[in-house]
Amino acid sequence: MSVPLDSEFIDRIASDPDPIVRLRLAVQLASVAIDPDATEEELATVGPVLLKLSADPDKEVRRAIAGVVGTSPHAPIDLVFSIAADDEDIACPVIEGSQALDERALLAMMEVCDQPRLEAIACRRGLTREVVHQLIRRGDEDVLASLLENPDSRIDADGYRLLHARIKQAKHAVELEQMLQARPDLPVEMKATLLSARARRLVAFTRQNSWLGARGADAVIGDVEERALAKLIEGAGRDEVAALARHLARSGSLTPSLILRAACIGRMDFVEQAFSVLTRTPARRVHNMLFSGATGLRALQTKARLPASLVPPLRVATDVYRDLAKSRDPADRRRFGRLMIERTLTAYEGFSEADKRYLLKVLSRYGGGETAVLAKKLLSEFAVAA
Question: For residues 205, 207, 211 and 213, what is the CA-based torsion angle, rounded to 10 degrees?
Fold first, then answer.
C-alpha cells in the first residue's frame, strides 16, 4: 500500500453506526488480510479491527468478511476460527473450503465444534488420516454419509474398520452400508465382510417371517453368500486375492465349494492363495505343487484337510489355465469354462463316466453363465444316454 494505515481512523470507521460503512471497511480490510504481499505492520493494524468486525451485530458484515476470506490460504487462522464460530450458513462454507486450516487447526476445531461443522470438515479435500479417524469417531450419521460421499476423502483400512463398527450401530445402517460398498477404495476384505453381513440379515429376515426352516434358510443364504463372494473373487485385483483369502479363512468362509467356484472361473491365483493360507505354505511353493499334476494336488488337498473330491476338477482347471497362459489371457472366463468342459469330456482317459458326470455337475453349479448352461445340458444328455 502506498500510505501507512491509520489504526485509529480504521477503528472509528469500524464503530460507525451505518452497517453499509462497516461492510465496506470489512471487505477492504479482509482483502489486506489475505494479500500475500501485505507487510507485517499492515497485518498487525487490520487484524484486531477485522476480528472485531467478524463479530459485528450485522450479519451481512460478517458474511462479507467470510466471502472475501473464503478459500484463501493466507487468511489469518484466528480470523478463520472466528468465522467458524458464526452461524452455520456463514461458517460451514469457509470451514469446508478454507486452505488456511491445516491438520492441527482442524483437530483443534473438532474438539469443540458441533455436528454441522463436522459435516463441513467431512466434505473437505485432502483430509489427513487422523482427521478422518476423528470424524468417524465423533461424527453422527450425516457426518459419516458426507465422508463416504466425498470422492477426495482417503480412508485407510483401520478407518474402514472403525467406520463399519460405527455404521453397524447406526439407525440407517443399511443406507450407510450401501454408500460404503460404493467406495472405489474399499478394501476387498471389507467388501467380503459386508456381503456376509447382508447374508446374515437375510437369514434373520427369512426366519422371522417363517418362510424357510432354520436349515433351509441357512442352506439358501449360504449359497447366496458364496455366489456373491465368488463374484467378488472374480473381480478382485491380483494384489487383493491374498488379503481376501486370509480374511475368508479367518471368518470361516474359505470353503471347499468356494475354492471350486474360483477354479471354475479361472481364478487360480485365488486358489493358490487359498491353499497357501490353509496349509501355511508359501504361495510360490503352492503354485509349483498345484501345477505339478495330480500328485501335487493330492498333497495340497491332504495337508489342507479338504475333500478328495476337489482334486479332479482342480486338475482340469490347472491344465486349462496352463494352456491358456501359453496362448492367450488365462483370465478369459468364457473360454476357460468351455475348455474345462471340453477337457472333462475328452482329455482324461482315466476319468470314468461317473467322474465326468461329477465334473459336469461341479461346472453346472459353479461355472456360472454359459459354462453352467452348457454343463447342465450335457448332464441331461448323460441322463438320457444312461
Answer: 150
**CA 336 distance to own-chain centroid:** 30
pLDDT tens per residue across span 9-43: 787 888 888 999 999 999 999 999 999 999 999 99
Last residue of a domain, one of 197, 219, 254: 254
272 domain residue, yes or no: yes
Q: Which is more confident, 8 or 74?
A: 74
User: How long a stretch of residues is the chain?
Assistant: 386
Provide DSSP, 225-247: HHHHHHHHHHH--TTTHHHHHHH
Q: How many domains, the chain?
A: 2
Cell of 343: 477337457
Alpha helices in 87-213 (DSSP H): 88-97, 103-110, 115-122, 129-138, 141-149, 157-168, 173-181, 188-208
214 falls within a domain: yes
Residue 264: closest CA among 215, 223, 220, 320? 320
- Count other C-beta atoms under 10 Å from residue 305's C-beta: 9
Check pLDDT > 70 for residue 105. Answer: yes
Q: Are 65 and 91 in contact (CB under 8 A)?
A: no
Q: Are residues 237 and 351 in the same domain?
A: no
Instruction: State yes or no: pLDDT of 219 exceeds 70.
Output: no
Residue 38 lies in a domain: no
- What grid cell was written down for 215? 436349515
| Dist CA 50 CA 13 (whole Å) | 12
Same domain, 280 and 384: yes
With bands split at pLDDT 50, 70 and 90, how would you rate the model's confidence at 276? very high
Its domain, for residue 213, covers 187-254
Residues 333 and 372 in one domain: yes
Amino acid of residue 157: A
Q: Kindly state the average pLDDT of the residues 42-48.
A: 92
Specify whether 236 is located in the same domain as 297.
no
Cβ neighbourhood burial of 4 (10 Å; 0-12, 13-18, 19+): exposed
Please identify, among 254, 288, 303, the residue that sits at the C-terminal boundary of a domain. Answer: 254
The type of residue at 287 is H
pLDDT digits (tens, 9 = 90+) for 312-327: 889 989 988 888 877 6
